[in-house]
Amino acid sequence: KAGVTQTPRYLIKTRGQQVTLSCSPISGHRSVSWYQQTPGQGLQFLFEYFSETQRNKGNFPGRFSGRQFSNSRSEMNVSTLELGDSALYLCASSSGREAGAEKLFFGSGTQLSVL
Amino acid sequence: DQQVKQNSPSLSVQEGRISILNCDYTNSMFDYFLWYKKYPAEGPTFLISISSIKDKNEDGRFTVFLNKSAKHLSLHIVPSQPGDSAVYFCAASGSNTGNQFYFGTGTSLTVIP
């Protein structure tokens, strides 16, 4: 079974631009969560999608948004990029049937650098 | 507000000895806990989990202990191997957090051959 696939692996953008990151979950998984990891910080929860609906949202500004498609693939968008948005963005999938009580499977992440 | 804390940023252990990684949490509603291992430039890999109905879970060389009254969990690795050198994250969720997990800031483990 293929794992969680994130594209692209690396991105370099400048301040003010916008970016879209993509995540394909494990086949059969309907829940996709997004996390941000910055140096010295743990993983910070952005949002979770389940069956094309945002089920939960973390404490990030509205510049961060996402969506999920009918095939469970998910995209995350960051508009008006700021220097502080430079981070590793991780996508995680799970079946979603036991929210909060099942392990998450992570992709390799997208390393975003904002110049 | 860091609800899950790993107060030791780093730990060095000799090969063959025990590694003990600690994690504290503040939210008494947390009832499911995970440990992940992460290498640079890779995503976290699941290691072991424990739910609040247990106080211990074991999988091979890895054992997780949960002390609910102290809101503390620990991961024991016995025996430690050089390939265990990585950053370890603990994570917690609860019935009131949906599928949102709260992660600690990680502990970098170095196993010295």
Overview of this structure, please?
The complex is a heterodimer of chains A (115) and B (113). By secondary structure, chain A is mainly β. Helices cover 0% and strands 50% of the residues of chain A. Chain A is built from no helices and eleven strands. Chain A has strands at residues 5-7, 10-13, 19-24, 31-37, 43-50, 53-57, 64-68, 74-78, 87-94, 105-106, 110-114. In chain A, the strands form two sheets. In chain A, strands 2, 4, 5, 6, 9, 10 and 11 form a seven-stranded mixed β-sheet that branches. Chain A has a four-stranded antiparallel β-sheet with strand order 1-3-8-7, with no helix packed on it. The radius of gyration of chain A is 13 Å and the shape is globular. The N and C termini of chain A lie far apart (37 Å). The mean pLDDT of chain A is 93. Chain B is mainly beta and 113 residues long. Chain B has strands spanning 4-5, 10-14, 19-25, 30-38, 45-51, 56-59, 62-67, 72-77, 86-94, 102-103, 107-112. The radius of gyration of chain B is 13 Å and the shape is globular. The termini of chain B are far apart. The A-B interface holds A 4, 6, 31, 33, 35, 40-45, 48, 50, 55-56, 58, 90, 92, 94, 96, 99-101, 103-109, 111 and B 2, 4, 6, 31-32, 34, 36, 41-46, 49, 51, 89, 91, 93-95, 97-106.
Descriptors:
heterodimer, A: 115 residues, seven-stranded mixed β-sheet, 0% helix, 50% strand, B: 113 residues, mainly beta, six-stranded mixed β-sheet
Would you kindly provide a brief summary of this structure?
Chain A has 115 residues and is mainly beta.
Write the layout of secondary structure elements.
The complex is a heterodimer of chains A (115) and B (113).
Chain A: E1 5-7, E2 10-13, E3 19-24, E4 31-37, E5 43-50, E6 53-57, E7 64-68, E8 74-78, E9 87-94, E10 105-106, E11 110-114
Chain B: E1 4-5, E2 10-14, E3 19-25, E4 30-38, E5 45-51, E6 56-59, E7 62-67, E8 72-77, E9 86-94, E10 102-103, E11 107-112
Parallel strand pairs in B: 2-11
Antiparallel strand pairs in B: 1-3, 3-8, 4-5, 4-9, 6-7, 7-8, 9-10, 9-11
